[in-house]
Amino acid sequence: PREEASIAFDCFDVNNKGKLGLTELKLAIRELDTKISETDLQHIIDEFDKDGDGYIKKDDFLAILDEYYFN
User: Based on C-alpha coordinates, what's the Rg of the chain?
Assistant: First the structure.
């Protein structure tokens, strides 16, 4: 699942910036067959966005999936 998550991140990082915003994160998580509200996604970004730029980097994305979906 972690390799699939890494591939999903790369697919949704359409600007090749190495990070996902709220819209891209929502698409990526839903692609992994997970239903989540935008409010919950924003809370996740707030929790895992270590530098406060409003984006989730790949290591943060994998940490989110580890905590919420892969355990």
Answer: 11
Angstrom distances, CA of residue 17 to CA of 3, 27, 33, 42, 56 = 19, 16, 24, 19, 11
Cβ-based burial of 65 (10 A; exposed 0-12, middle 13-18, buried ≥19): buried
Q: What is the dihedral of CA 32, 37, 38, 43, to 10 degrees?
A: -90
pLDDT in tens, 18-40: 999 888 888 887 777 667 777 88
Q: Over range 5-11, report the average pLDDT.
A: 88
Taking the model in full, what pTM does it have?
0.75
**Which residues, other chains included, contact 66 with Cβ-Cβ below 8 Å and sequence gap of 6+?**
2
